[in-house]
Specification:
7 strands; about 40% helix; about 20% strand
Length: about 250
C-alpha cells in the first residue's frame, strides 16, 4: 500500500486509496499517457489530491472553502507537488463555472453527495467533467453503518428513525444531511451515464473498534486494515459500512 497517510488515518482511506490507485494505473495504460488529468470535487485540503499528484498526475481540486484550499496549497508545497496541484474555489453544482466539461480522465467525488442540494445534479456534473471512458470514484455515507452505530451506542430510537427517514438521518442533531444505500448510489450513477465496475464497503469495522485497542495492541492496526480490505468487496458487508465507494466508467 503506497498511501502515505498513516497510521489511524489509513483506516479511513486505505480501501479507497488502493482501489483508486489501481484505477489510475488502468487509465494510464488505456490512454497511453504518462500522466492523467484528475478532478477532485470537494477535495478540501488534499487527502487524495496530494497522493494522486505524487504519482505524477495533474490534479484540479474544486472546493467551496478558502481555508481548505489554503491548506491544500501548503500541503502540496510540502509534498513537492505544487506544480501538479491546482485549487479552485467552487462547488459541484457550479462546476462548469470553474472547470471545463469533458476535460478529465478521472473524477473523484468523495464526501460530496451527502451535502449538496441535489445529488442527482451533482453526480451528473461530475460525470460530464469526464472524458469518454473516464473513471468516476464516488464515496458517500452509508445508511446501514449509521443505523448500526446508533444501535450499538444504545440509541435505538434514533437507529429506527434513520431506517425510516428519507434522507437516512437519525434526528435533528445528526451532522450528516443525507445517507445512501448501495442501490441508491448505483442507480444515480448509472442514470448519469456510468457503468458501475465495483462497489466497496468502507470502514465496515473501523468505526466500531475501540481506538485504544488499535493504538496499543501490537499489530492490531495492520490486522484491521487487512480485515477491512477483505470485507470491502463482499456485498454482505456493504449494508453495514460507514461509507460506500462506487467505481465506474463513463459510457462512450
Amino acid at each position: 500500500m503506497s498511501d502515505p497517510q498513516r497510521p489511524r488515518a489509513s483506516l479511513r482511506t486505505a480501501v479507497v486509496w488502493d482501489v483508486l490507485e489501481d484505477a489510475l494505473d488502468r487509465r494510464v495504460k488505456a490512454t497511453g499517457k504518462d500522466s492523467l488529468d484528475v478532478l477532485d470535487t470537494g477535495g478540501g485540503s488534499g487527502n487524495f489530491a496530494v497522493p494522486v499528484a505524487r504519482l505524477g498526475h495533474r490534479v484540479t481540486v474544486v472546493d467551496p472553502s478558502p481555508n481548505a484550499l489554503f491548506a491544500l496549497e501548503r500541503r502540496a508545497g510540502e509534498a513537492g507537488v505544487a506544480d501538479r496541484v491546482r485549487g479552485v474555489q467552487g462547488d459541484v453544482h457550479g462546476l462548469f463555472d470553474v472547470v471545463e466539461r469533458g476535460g478529465y480522465d478521472v473524477v473523484l467525488c468523495h464526501g460530496v453527495l451527502e451535502y449538496v442540494d441535489d445529488p442527482v445534479e451533482g453526480i451528473s456534473n461530475a460525470v460530464e467533467a469526464l472524458r469518454p471512458a473516464g473513471a468516476l470514484s464516488l464515496l458517500a455515507a452509508g445508511l446501514g453503518g449509521a443505523v448500526l452505530a446508533r444501535a450499538l451506542a444504545g440509541h435505538f430510537t434514533e437507529a429506527r428513525h434513520a431506517l425510516s427517514d428519507p434522507a437516512g438521518r437519525w434526528g435533528e442533531g445528526d451532522p450528516v444531511p443525507r445517507r445512501f444505500t448501495v442501490e441508491q448510489l448505483t442507480e444515480v450513477v448509472e442514470a448519469a451515464g456510468v457503468d458501475v465496475g465495483a462497489v466497496h464497503g468502507v470502514r465496515v469495522f473501523a468505526d466500531l473498534v475501540p481506538g485504544v485497542l488499535v493504538d496499543t495492541e501490537p499489530g492490531a492496526l495492520d490486522a484491521l486494515l487487512r480485515l477491512e480490505a477483505a470485507a470491502a468487496e463482499l456485498p454482505a458487508f456493504h449494508s453495514v459500512a460507514t461509507q460506500l465507494h462506487v467505481l465506474g466508467e463513463k459510457r462512450g
